[in-house]
From TrEMBL:
Keywords: Cell membrane, Electron transport, Heme, Iron, Membrane, Metal-binding, Nitrate assimilation, Oxidoreductase, Transmembrane, Transmembrane helix, Transport. Pfam families: Nitrate_red_gam. This is Respiratory nitrate reductase subunit gamma. InterPro entries: Heme-iron_electron_transfer, NarG-like_domain, NarG-like_sf, Nitrate_red_gam. Signal peptide: none annotated.
Amino acid sequence: MRTLLWGVIPYVAVVLLVAGLLWRYRYDKFGWTTRSSQVYESKLLNIASPMFHYGILFVLVGHLVGLFIPESWTEKVGVKEHTYHLLSLYGGTAAGILLVIGILLLLYRRRTNAPVFRATTANDKLMYLVLFGAIVLGMVAKLTHASGDGYNYRESIAPWSRSLFTLQPDTDLMAGVPVLYQIHAVVGMALFALIPFTRLVHMFSAPVQYLFRPYVVYRSKDPSRVGPRPERRGWEKTGS
């Protein structure tokens, strides 16, 4: 079971993520969208959506720092484990609260607004369930082991995560990890596998092309052509 959970499922999730993105881009370009429901309701969406997106961005950055920056590196710049634990605890909790409030408001809006609810698919419901489960499990795991110096996941989960990139997963590192952290990790991998098949796929649609698009040229109106004018037959000359 340890080999399955920590040596097989991570790669299955990555394969589903990459293959799903390629399949979606090849066969469902017009479905590669957030399927926005702003046309039905925008007042609550303008509050909930920024909270959700900023919250999940802060949470993602915290996970990347915690998992992929070794403990020795932060100690070399003067950040001791206790200091890191406090930053992770308070900063992660604040970001998690912001994220939870945002997703709860989005769920409330989706359930109470009839047109928005009718536009909700079974795929959306599964996505919200897994996403909300991953968020709550991560916060509960962190707060449950918050006393003292807390649980130092950078000595177990973090090196295991990095070992996956060498294709030599050290599954023994996950043996003593608290159960809540293990469940959080499994749900997180399930979420990554679901991304290509849900509206979350839009996170891979950064508008890079806007940096290279041509300028939009605006021209002033010809005063002689302002106002109503009689219709003319044939082609009109274009000015420079």
